[in-house]
């Protein structure tokens, strides 16, 4: 009986880890025809964060996702993951 209880408990604990996280994650995009310096002209969905943050871009309409350009690749993450919750609210948002 104890063995059955232990097996049920173990299967319940292992089942918890198989549920996918609802937290948004980071992703990479390859820039085939652009470099980091030609992004704003070539991709309408990206805009510079600030002149002081070189190679950082907001993606989309709002300011929830930020991308960093490294050579010919973009790493895009939600701003809370990228900067951390204590810093993300002070990053300027230009929604123009």
TrEMBL record:
Domain of life: Eukaryota
Annotated TM spans: none
GO cellular component: Golgi apparatus; neuron projection terminus
Example of a GO biological process term: mesenchymal stem cell proliferation
A Pfam entry, by short name: SCRG1
Signal peptide coordinates: none
Name this polypeptide is given: Stimulator of chondrosis 1
Originating organism: Gallus gallus (Chicken)
């Amino acid at each position: 009986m104890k063995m059955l209880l232990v097996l049920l408990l173990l299967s319940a604990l292992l089942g918890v880890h198989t549920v996918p996280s609802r937290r948004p994650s980071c992703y990479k995009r390859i820039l085939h025809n652009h470099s980091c310096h030609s992004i704003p002209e070539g991709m309408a969905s990206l805009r510079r964060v600030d002149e002081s943050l070189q190679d950082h871009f907001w993606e989309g309409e709002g300011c929830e996702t930020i991308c960093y350009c490294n050579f010919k690749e973009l790493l895009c993450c939600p701003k809370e993951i990228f900067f951390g919750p204590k810093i993300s609210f002070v990053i300027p948002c230009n929604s123009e």
